[in-house]
Amino acid sequence: METSLRYGVDSKSLLLHAKEKFPLNSVTHLQGHAELDTRIGAPTYLCGMIRRYFPEQYASLAVGVQYYRRQKLWYNVRGKIAFPVTADESVNFHIKGKYDVDEKILEKKPRGAAEFTWNIMDVTKDQDMRLKVGYEVVEKVPYFQIRETNWSLNVNSNGKWKVRYDL
């Protein structure tokens, strides 16, 4: 199970996030996420999805359902494809999209982004880094991520930021 602590500019409290993947076969898994708000002591986000990978195309497709404490139930479809830029695949160009609809299929939330990632392995012993720069197409917002082995910082041009620590 992957767990992390998360905090951001929109947060009023520290969040404990957990993710688990249950393999269904070699290219498909069931993925579950949960988020616990430490201030109120209750889950604020639950998600279940089936994700299929297409390794030859560097792509994945997922369908699932999400529950938000205030926004209730949402259904979603998401996809991602990577295009290696360098021969060693340390630099990649990603296109990703997500489409959410509420339980009554009245409200819709499309999202899409294009980004470059640079994975820098063995910066020091037992330390890897990833630099990511991208553009969120629907909101028209550039963003940046710096990720060290256990830490990541995400910042966008609207002044929003999030810090994540992997336990």
From TrEMBL:
One of its GO terms (molecular function) is voltage-gated monoatomic anion channel activity. GO terms for cellular component: chloroplast outer membrane; etioplast membrane; pore complex. Keywords: Chloroplast, Ion transport, Membrane, Plastid, Plastid outer membrane, Porin, Transmembrane, Transmembrane beta strand, Transport. It is found in: Plastid, Chloroplast outer membrane; Plastid, Etioplast membrane. It is a multi-pass membrane protein. One of its GO terms (biological process) is regulation of monoatomic anion transport. It comes from the Eukaryota. InterPro entries: OEP21 (IPR034575). Voltage-dependent rectifying anion channel that facilitates the translocation between chloroplast and cytoplasm of phosphorylated carbohydrates such as triosephosphate, 3-phosphoglycerate and inorganic phosphate (Pi) depending of ATP to triosephosphate ratio in the plastidial intermembrane space; in high triosephosphate/ATP conditions (e.g. photosynthesis), export of triosphosphate from chloroplast (outward rectifying channels), but in high ATP/triosephosphate conditions (e.g. dark phase), import of phosphosolutes (inward rectifying channels). Belongs to the plastid outer envelope porin OEP21 (TC 1.B.29) family. This is Uncharacterized protein.
